[in-house]
Amino acid sequence: MGVRGLTSYIAKNAEQYLDSHELHDCDVVVDGDSLACQLYKSINSAFGGNYDQFYRVVCNFFGMLKQCNVTAYVLLDGGYEPKKLSTVRQRLRSKIGAIKYLNPFEQSTPTFPIMMREVFIESLVHCNVKFMRCIFEADDEVAALARKLKCPVLSFDSDFYIHNVMYIPSAYLSLKVFRRNILPEDGRKVRQRKDLVSEIDSNGDYSNHKNTQKKDCYYYMQCCAYQIANLAREKGLSKEMLPLFAILLGNDYVHTSIFKKFYMNVSMKKTGKNNTKQGKRIVALLRWLQHETMSSAIEKIINHVEKDKKEWLRDQIRDGISGYVNEKSMAYEYFGLENTVRDSKVKFTTPTVCHKMAEIETEASVERAQNDDSESNGEQSDTDDDITDDDDDDEKEEEETPLDLEIQMKQQMSLSSSFKPPEWLLNKILSGKLPRYVVDLITLRLYINTPQVENFQLEDCNRISVPILQMIFTILHANYPYQKEFRYLTRVQRRTDIEYKRYNSLCLDLRFNASTSKNHEFFKLIFRDFDNSEQIFKMIDETIPSDIQLLFVAIIYWSRYSKHFNVVYVSSLLLCQIVLAVHDSIVEPIRDRIKFEKKFKPNEIKKLMKSHQMTKVESGSMSIEACKTAITRDEVILAQFNFLDLFTISDKLRTKHTEFSSDIIHGFAEFQSIVYQLNCLNALCGEPYPNINISTCINGCFLFHTYMTLKERPNIRYYVKNFLLSLSPNIFNLFELELNVLMPFIECLSQESISKRKKRRNINKRKSREQRQNKSNEDNQLLNDGETTEKRDDGDEESDYEDLNNKFSCLSTGKN
Predict the structure, then answer these.
(1) Which of 101, 135, 207, 326 could bridge to 59 as Cys pair (CB 3.0-4.6 Å)?
(2) H-run or E-run covering 652
(3) Mind listing the domains of the chain with CATH numbers?
């Protein structure tokens, strides 16, 4: 959620509010979405998401926690609450603007790919980390669980400066593991430490590291920690007043514009010349709250708003305060932690705000009667130091007032407050098998589109998967009163703006049965418009290994509905999947040429090349699984050597920025959208196929560079066989076999289509040569006749440039 300006204020005054801390031998509650964003910031997402790299980074991080004997409990965000939609719309516009003007070489603003959170969950499963997806936002649940476990919270959300927990900002956590020795005589810590692990290495898998904890030493991660007493003690403020302080600063639920008149009556004198405007407001509010009780402060605040908004604001303040002191924890029961709490040295005081609410309401009712006619009881302000919302750039919001939004979302709020999904659906949500938007589709009948790196001149790349989303919506409302449509919040084509579209649920002859373990027949309805749907699924079930069955379903769907799909796309994707899933399972995934040559010496590579000359290996009637089994380690090393440059931004791309094509990325973004929705539909249908492992099939940088490499090749198979995989025949057989399996169902893969493509290229080349020759002859004639050429009407600069070159070539020919 976040409290505006508080993170910056604490960071600026870190020596007052943050304490050095060693993280080890304890539990920790992790805000999963916040941590995922922090870990992804170091990864370039301009090409659509390097999911394999992110997967290893997350595994490395939890491997470090494991070595420090830290047990993590990860909580993930669920759906949006209706009162947050105004903020969601504003942030969506910001994301669209950031992506539209993205510089792939200097990413000042991080952008996060569409399936980042799903890959984060893949990593948690691999590392055996306990996690749960909350129904709505996870902040209150995180704090409640941390108080029950008496352990710190790891996040980067300023709300935790207000919650009564030990808070470790993830930005201040060193991604290194240190060892500290303990003297055996008296147990005192020796003032020395040894750096065991350098900064996270995205090429290794640290998650399987065995804990080598010894009695004479311990391992830890250095960090900074905060406790609520730090802020309260520094400002002489009661801890119970801090939730009200956070609400006054403004968060995603209550915007500060409602407090505009109140701020005019708060003195801004001596708030620090070097502070920002929001920093001055923080100092002034803390000083003002020192002299108030909870009830008196609330009444003075409410007296400065319009009469028709008083009760609304009172409810918002009450709800906001109760969120900060919530003690109910669904995760505590979900993880089965009743008898597993560790001893902790962290001391917590029991929040008393909840117990005082009834008393406050009683006092407030008396004061309301006395102050109804009063408009202002606050202090007089120094107008020169006033901070208003008009000149605060950090607090620009939509023009709708909070009261207008509340009226607008009244029906949705009543639905979300009574959200009680059936047990089968609740289990899938809590276990993270379904993405967070599922709750929005049920409670708000709304889907908030995630913008991707794409060509903004074209239709939204996520539009291709809307039919799958309609199927998901239909299933979700099978056990609810029938809903005809849902709203789809997405970008406007060619503009940095958003709009709502409406899509209907599907009228299907087959009814969804939640009691059936695997709704295979229902899942097949995504291909109901295909003439050969039965043949498609027969091929999938009988020919394709289970781990990539759904991937092939996604490719066939992509080929049918995409306007950009071609043989280069599918070839690039299959090569990427082979490298990430097969190569990386045989040889350690190394993407950097220097590190690769350090591990596999150039002399060793040369010896392998000489001893492993290309031998013709016929796949014959081999299956895909048999082809995988036949691949040797030497073949993988030699193939990896050829693929290394495809994982990094080329020098040509850095020097010639025009080589960066959003059109190419747009096609792969469509595929990502299909995978995102198919995984959700597959999970809802009881997983008739294993879900696609995103980290083993998509690396945006590799896909882009492979496409750029293959697009100019008249015969892709020949190039792959004789150049990329010239010394890896079994890997090529796997690639060719997968193409052959897809060929009957994808038109552009047929031999006829390939021959037509080659023929078309030859015809275009011949026409181009004839046109250049004709222009050359005409220019020669004009030069000989002494005539001057007039300006052409087409205004094509490129043709002008070609004509100029032709003239020079003519002059050169005349000299010869």
Answers:
(1) 207
(2) helix 651-655
(3) 6-404 (3.40.50.1010), 524-749 (no CATH), 751-783+803-809 (no CATH)
